[in-house]
C-alpha cells in the first residue's frame, strides 16, 4: 500500500514534464504575437491594414534559453491589398527574466524575402500609386509620379473589360504579373532594346484575382539594385538585367490580388521619360487586367495587349515601336505564326525576344484596327475562358489561320 503514493508522485512528475513543453511553446507563441503587434515587429512607415504572424512550429534549445519559431507572415497594405501577401518566416527568440523576446526575423529557408528585409523602406504615397523603396527618395517620387499618370490612362483603355471598370477604377487612393509569384508568367518587353518589362504571374508573395473591379491603384516596389530585385523574385540576377520592371501576381485566380510592380532601378534609370511611361503603363495594365486573364491566355495576347495599351496614345510610328520586327521584315524574314509562349523566355537571344513582344503588339494593334477596340477587349477575356480558336470565332468571326494572315499582311504594310 505504501507504493501507491510513490507511483502517484512519479505519475504526477511525468505529467508535469509533458506539460512543460506545451507551456513553453505557448509562451513563445505569445511572445511572437506581442512582438508582431508592436512597432518593433513591423516595417516602419509602411501603411498596413493588417499584420500577423501565425506560429507553425517551435524548437527550444540551449537548456530552454533560446528558441526558433517557424511562422507564416500575413499582411495587407492599407488601401491596396484585397488579399493578404506574405510568406514563411523564421524567428529567433531568447529567454531572459522569465520572458521570451524575439531577437531576429528572417525569411524561412527557401522563402522569398520582403522588401524590408533588404533595409529601411521609404514610402511615397501618390494619388494612384504607393511606392515602397530602399533607394533615394527622389527616385521613388519620380516613379510615383509616372505611376500616377499611368493608372488613369490604363483605366480608360481597359474600361470595357469585366472586373476592371466601375467606381473602384477611378478611386483617388493609391495601390502588379507573374510572380506573388506562384503560377505562370507574363513577360518582359524590350521595345527596340530601349526598355524592358515583365509580368510574372504567381509566386509565393502575392495572391491571385477573382473578377473583382480593379480599384485603380498600384503598388510599386523599388529595391536598391538588380541583385536585390532578383532576390525578391527568387531568380538569378541575370534574368532581370536590362529589364526595367516586372509584375507579380497569380493569373486568373481568386481572391483579388496583392499585385506588385517591381522596378529594376538600374535599367529604369537608363530609360527616357517616354520609356519610363511605357514601362509603368505596361506593368499597370497587367495589374488592372489580372481578373480577365488565366493560364490559358496566350502570352502573345497578354503581352501584346499590355504594349497596345502602353503605346495607344503615343503617336509613334510602328517602325519606331517595333524596330527588331521591322529589321526582320526588311530582311525578308516574315514570321509564319504568332509568337508561341516559348518565344517569351528570358536569358536567350535578346533580338528574338524583342521581336516576340513587338510582333505581339502589332497583332493587338491589327485586331483593334480591323475589328475594333471593343472586339480586342472581348477577345482578351474570351481567350482566358475558352480555347483560342473558339475565342477568335466568337469575338472576331475568324480562326487562327485568318488572324495570322491578316497579321502577316499588317507586318509587311506597317514595317516595310
From TrEMBL:
Signal sequence coordinates: 1-22
Record's keyword terms, sorted: Signal
Name this polypeptide is given: Lipoprotein
Native species: Streptomyces venezuelae
